[in-house]
Amino acid sequence: MLILLSISAEKVMKDAEDEDAVAQYKKYPLTSRLENLDVTNVPDDDKKFIPNYVKKRSDLGSKGEEERRALALALDYGGINIICATVATAEQFADQLRGKATVLLVDEAGQIATSQIMALTARLPHIRKIVLAGDVKQLPTFSHGISRKITAPATESTPITAEKKKTVMTVELKRSYRSHPFLVNAVAPWYDHKLIAEADPEERDIFTTSNLPLPNPAAPLLLLHVTEGDQKTESSSRQNPAQEDLAVNLLKKIPELCNTYAITVLCYYRETAENIRAAIKAELPDDEQFTVETVDAYQGREEEVVILVTTRSPRKKRLHQATNDFVEEDDFALSDERAIVSMTRARSGLVVIGNLYHLKKANSWRTFLDATKDVPVLTSKYAELLDEGHISEATLRSIETQI
Questions:
Q1: Given pLDDT bands bounded at 50, 70 and 90, which one contains residue 57?
Q2: Facing residues of 354 across strands?
């Protein structure tokens, strides 16, 4: 197997503090494959080139033409049958891959436009089979804010195109190995109740066996209702100081109570994410590092504990000039696809921070909250009570709220 990595990705792997986590992958990058290459049948000029290239690459100083030559040598003499790469990298080295690749397997295909797959396969004429793995219920390809009425079907994701055409064999993958069964069952109604939770609850017990007070001890879920409003920023993004403060305060307590720093904060809005990053840097010790990302940037990834910050609050209706009716403005936060991505990133524990009354306007959130009705919704006073110490069952009940 060969993994084609960018220079920056190789640097991350090289500098990784957790060596065990990357050890299994270190033998697969191009430099590693060339270092272990049997050069018996390699031409003399190429024999000299290989060690020079490896040194340059290790020093992060190789150039494009050297990359292509190195890849061609690895493919010609390395006995490589499996190549892992991003679509962009595969396009970059299509000339070297031509004639070598016969099967194209695309993971997270929902994030790749049909036109991009068509362009790639046009440059790889020996491809005989294409396998697309993706979720049509999650976020589609990024369109830079351009209306999909304009960009479709060019930017439509490949799984959606395949589903519409009905000419491609489709296999439903129903077994979910990522999340605690409770979290899988919470989104199962959105998938016509076809999902089967395969993870052992005892292997996803960071929340349920911790000292973190939960309104339902068997459910690794906290639903925290925040009534304070959001604000539009100069960059046209949005922020919600109350929700952001709540997330940061939880980051101060959850690691100790749950004995883990494997916590990611996911945000619906970029400005919200930037504010939380700044607060973490200012208020938490330097050795407490947490990932903070937007939901859109995190699709395809997972974390043991996810704190989701949704930002938005109910909007005032505005007068629609064409119809003269009062209508609610379009709400990015009520996207069902974005909701499904955000609900399915956590393995062992999920905290939802938001105006749940507002979120219920989306079919996805209404379905999720109905499926998790055994988990009482709490007010934002929850974090204040954590600061005070032990929270009794009676105290938890006192901060329950209806939405």
A1: confident
A2: 225
Alpha helices in 205-323 (DSSP H): 241-258, 270-283, 295-298
Please state, in angstroms and rounded to a whole number, the distance separating the CA atoms of residues 123 and 100: 12
Please name the residues in contact with 94: beta carbons below 8 A apart, sequence gap of 6 or more.
120, 123, 124
Measured CA to CA, the distance from residue 268 to residue 331 in angstroms comes to: 11
Phi, psi dihedral angles at 84 (to 5 degrees): -110, 130
User: DSSP secondary-structure letter at 138?
Assistant: S
Predicted local distance difference test score (pLDDT) of residue 7: 75
Tell me how far apart the alpha carbons of residues 225 and 138 are, in angstroms, rounded to a whole number.
Answer: 24
Structural domains present in the chain: 2-165 (no CATH), 175-401 (3.40.50.300)
Residue 354 and residue 307 in contact, taking contact as beta carbons nearer than 8 Å? no
State the amino acid at position 40 in one-letter form. T
Residue 217, CB-side half-sphere exposure with 13 Å CA sphere: 5
Nearest residue to 224 via CA among 45, 329, 376, 52: 376
13 φ, ψ (degrees, to nearest 5) = -65, -40
164-194: pLDDT as tens digits: 667 778 888 999 999 999 999 999 999 999 9
Sequence-separated (6 or more) residues with CB below 8 Å from residue 336 = 137, 190, 362, 363, 364
pLDDT band for 327, please (50, 70, 90 cuts): very low
* CB half-sphere exposure, 327, CA atoms < 13 A: 9
CA distance 32 to 40: 17
